[in-house]
Design brief:
Shape of chain A: globular
Helix content of chain A: 40-55%
Strand order of the largest sheet of chain B: 1-4
Distance between the termini of chain B: 13 Å
Structural class of chain A: alpha/beta
Shape of chain B: globular
CATH superfamily of the largest domain in chain A: P-loop containing nucleotide triphosphate hydrolases
Helix content of chain B: over 70%
CATH topology of the largest domain in chain A: Rossmann fold
Largest interface: A-B, 44 and 34 residues
Order of helices and strands of chain B: HHHHHHEEEHHHHEHHHH
Number of helices of chain A: 12
Distance between the termini of chain A: 60 Å
Strand order of the largest sheet of chain A: 6-7-8-3-9-10
Order of helices and strands of chain A: HEEEHEEHEHHHHEHEHEEHHH
Oligomer: heterodimer
CATH class of the largest domain in chain A: Alpha Beta
Radius of gyration of chain A: 20 Å
Amino acid sequence: MEWKREELRVEKEIGEPILVVENAMKAFGGLQALNNISFEVRRGEILSIIGPNGAGKSVMLNCINGLPGYRLDSGRIVFDGQDITNWPPHKRAHIGISRTFQKIELFGGMTVLDNVKLGRHMKMNTGWWDGGIYWGKAVKEEAKHRKWIEEKVFETCEIEIYRNRITGMLPYGVQKRIELARALAMGPRLLLLDEPMAGLNLEEVEDMTRFILDANEEKEWNCTIILVEHDMGVVMDISDRVIVFDWGAKIADGPPEEVQNKPEVIRAYLGEVEETYITRR
Amino acid sequence: MKLPTGVHFDNYEADHAWWKTRFVWIRMVLLLFVLLWVIPQFVGDYWLSFLNMVGYTILGAAGVQLLIGYTGLITLGHAAPIGFGAFACALSMYLFNIPYLLSFLIGMIAAGLLSLLFGLPCVRVKGFYLIMTTMAMQFITVDVILTQFLGPLAGKGRGGVLAIEPGMFSIGPWVIYSVKDAYIWMIIICIIVQVFMANLMRTRVGRAWMAIRDNDIAAEALGVNIVYYKLLAFFIAGALGGVAGCYWLTNLSIVSPEHFMFPWSLWLVGVILIGGVGSLYGHIFGAIFMTGVLEVVKLVLVPLADIIPGTMEKFLYIKDLVFGLAIILFLIFEPNGISYRWWQIKNYIHLWPFSY
C-alpha cells in the first residue's frame, strides 16, 4: 500500500509564520521559567524544542496551550494573526491548537472510542436537548463523526482493535497512541506534542515517528507540529528546525545539523563536566 | 461490548443502538409489559405504594447520579431542588389554577434554575468547598425559603404544608387519583428520565461531563467549555430533581418542607453509592435496595414481635442499625455498587460455559 501513502502526501512546503512568541516571560515564585523567549513557528514545519530537564520546554508548551496557571507574565503569543495571550484553553482549541501531554492525560474510565470522540467535541454541535431525545440530528451526527474517526483517525494511528476497550487498562505505548489520536481528532492546525516518545520501546518509537510524520505530511492532517522530545535521534531525523532551551532562555535556533554542533548546546547538555574535571586535576 | 456470534452491522447507526439483538428487544418489551400491566394488575396497594416510593427515589437519585457520578460535582443538597420543584408545582396549581402538566413543567424549570443559581460557585471552587455550597443550598432553600416564604403563600395550614385536591392531577381525560394511577405515571416518568439520561450520556454533552469528571485539564485542552458544562449539569440535575418533586406531590397530593430535609439529600447520595456511581443502573438498583431493606426489616421484625417482646418498640433503632450495617458491608465487599455486580453476572451468563 506504499503507493497509496505517497498519493496522500502533500508536497512539503514551509510557509509564513503561524505562531509567533514574542518576549515571553514566566516566573514561578523566584524561578524564572521562561526568560525573554521569542521564536516563530512556520506553517507546515516540525519544530523541535530540546533542552535539559527543567529548561522550560513544557512550560512553553503549556503557555501556548494556555493551561490554568500558565498565563504569561509579559510578552505575547500570536496565532495566525490573533493575539491569544490571555485566551482560555478551550477557545484556543477552537482556533486549531491541539496537544498531547507528557504524563498521559486520557479519560481512563471511558472507552478508546469515547476518548477519540471527545477530541471531536468542538466539531460537533449536538446540544443537551438533541442529545437527550437522540432522534434525527444527533443520530446522524454521531454516525457521521464515527465514520470519520474510524476512517481517518484510527486508520492513521492504527488503534482500530482497541476501539471498545477501557482506556485505563491498555498498555502504555497504546495509550500514547490514543492520546495522539485524540489530538488529531480535533483536526488541529498546530499540534503540540510533549514528549510523545517517552517510555516507549524502539519499535513503538518507530511507529510513533511515522504517525507524527503522517500528521505533518498527509493531506488530511497537514499539521504544523511543535515537538518537545529527549530522543535526539528522532529529533534530528524528523525536525525541520530545532530550538534549544537552557534555564528558561533560548540558546540556539536553526536546522538540526547546525544546532547539533553549537558549543553552547553541547555545554548545556553535557553541563560543565569537562571544566569540573579540569579543576579537579 | 459482547455480541453473540454472527451478529454484525452494516452501518454505524445500528452499532450505536442500545438494544442490538432481537433477544434483547423481546426482553425489554416483556419487561415493559410486566411493569405497565402485570404489576398493577396483580399487586396490592401496599406494594404499589412501596414501588411508588422506589420510583420517587429513582427520580431523585437520577439528578445526584448526573452530578456526582457523571460530572464529578459532589452535592449534598439535592433535596433542595426536589422540594423547590414540588412547591413551585403546587403553588402554580393552587394559586393560579394552572393545569397539571404545565405546572409540572414550571416545577422542573424552577428547580433547574434554583440548582443553577447555587451551582454558580462551581466556577471558582472545587471539591470540599463545593460540597459546602451545596449544603448551603439545602439549608437556605428548605429551611428558609420553603418554610418561611413559599409555604405560607397558600394561606392555610401550618409549617408550610400545602395540600392539593387529588382530583386536580389530570392529564387530558386521565385523572391521577388512585395508587395504581400514581404507579403508572411513575413508570412513565421513570422511563422518560432514564431514556433521556442514557441518551445524554452517549452523546456530546454527556461525554463532555465525563471528561470533566475524569480530567478537567485535558477536557479544557480539548475545547470543552468547563464552566458552561458544569452549570448545565447543575441545571439539568436540578430539573430532574424538579421532576422527582412534582411526582412526589402527585403521589401524596400534599407537600411539606419536612419531606426535603438534609437526611434526604444524604440518603440520595447513599442510594447511588450502593447502587453504583457513574452507572445508568446505579440509581435504580440503589433505590430498590435502600427502599427494599426497610420492607425486609419490617417483614422479619413483625413476626418476631410475638416471640421477643419489645421488638416493635425498638423498630426504629433496629432499622437504623441494619442500614448502617448494609452500607458498611457494601463498601467493604462491593465498593463499585450493585450495578457492577449486575454487570459481572450478565457477563457470566453471556459467556457461559466459558470463562472469557
